[in-house]
Write the structure tokens for this entry.
Amino acid sequence: MSPKAFRTSFSVVLILLTFCSALLAQSPSSVPVPIASESSLKNANAPPSVPSIESMAAQNANNAKNNAPKAIGRMDLPAVDGQQWIEYDIRPYTQNLKNVERPQQVIIDWIIRETGTDVWFNEPMGILNADRSTLRVYHNAEMQKKVAQVYEKFVNGLTEPQVYGLRLFTVGNPNWRTKSTGLMRSTAVQTPGAQAWLMPKENAAIFMAQLRTRTDVREIQAVDISMVNGQSQALEQLRSRNYLKEYKPNTTSAWPPYTPFSDEIQEGYKIQVSPLMGLDGRSIDLMLKCEFDQVERLNNVSIDLQIPMSQPQTVQIDVPQVVSWRLHERFQWPSDQMLLLSCGVVAAPTGQVSNTLLRGNPPSLFGLNRILPTSQGQRTDALFLIEYRGPASTQLNQPMVAPSGAAVPATNSANSNVSRGRY
């Protein structure tokens, strides 16, 4: 064999050996396979481990400890939105209200009515706080301007108590509008079904004269209230209506097996007013809140009581049918005009009482109230008239309700429920 042929054969054999070595290196049989022990096989078949209650409680305690609020001794208030800390001196207003508990609260209430609630609990960060001497406000310049406008009405406004005339009456038919609409102009109101008008006092006198000619008009409340600027006064006239609510098993003795239980509902009206005069005394900003509730009827329902060793006994209970109406509005108008508010045809503020022997609530004579039909609740157009009368010093001959919240006795008019309640 020639040297050239030998070299060629040797190269071919070397290439084959290299190729076979590479195949053996990639073969799975060349990789050692670990042999599973008996303990590892048992662990593989076991269910996943669940932490114990004790370990979870300890972990939760550690998380609560890490997430607990940390008291900061001193910090700087954020001012990225231009907030400013301003303190307002409210002593010129509160020093004359020594008998009023927390007189500064009405200042906060009127600020929130002007600015809204969300601006103090969302971004940017704000603070509103007051005591009897200082109002503290932390907010941006725009909000500080609104606060200052309300603050001026309290501190630099009218300090003498002012008198407001409040009259509540009902009209059986809403057609009083036919002749009276031309005497007044409407103003905005948000409560569904309600209407509001403004009219000069001269036109109000004509309007009242027109109502006096009607036979379906009933005056419920007529009172003059002396109020400090911004403070609130409440008028309410409520009556309790008792009814048989349920029968409960007697747990103290074997007989009778059931004991009747009664309950009561307060029906009538509650009115809350809070006026805030302008700096010049020519405008009135008034918050008015009214709540009317009337028990329209008591529905009789028969129920069966299971008596041991006897037949079931049928008794009757009462299910109240209550009609309610709510209004919570803020009105602004010139002080030389009067505000007339119509609640719409709603439940009468004072319904008819039917607690007679024949028709009364249980117990009654021979249970005849279970047989005779009950009368339906009244529906009337409730009207509320508000008039600014001037400073209290100029109203010497007018009966007024004291601003301290004292009770006023009922008047001697034919309608005994007029001007009765807590003010």
Observations:
- The first helix runs from residue 3 to 26.
- The chain has two domains: 84-155, 162-401.
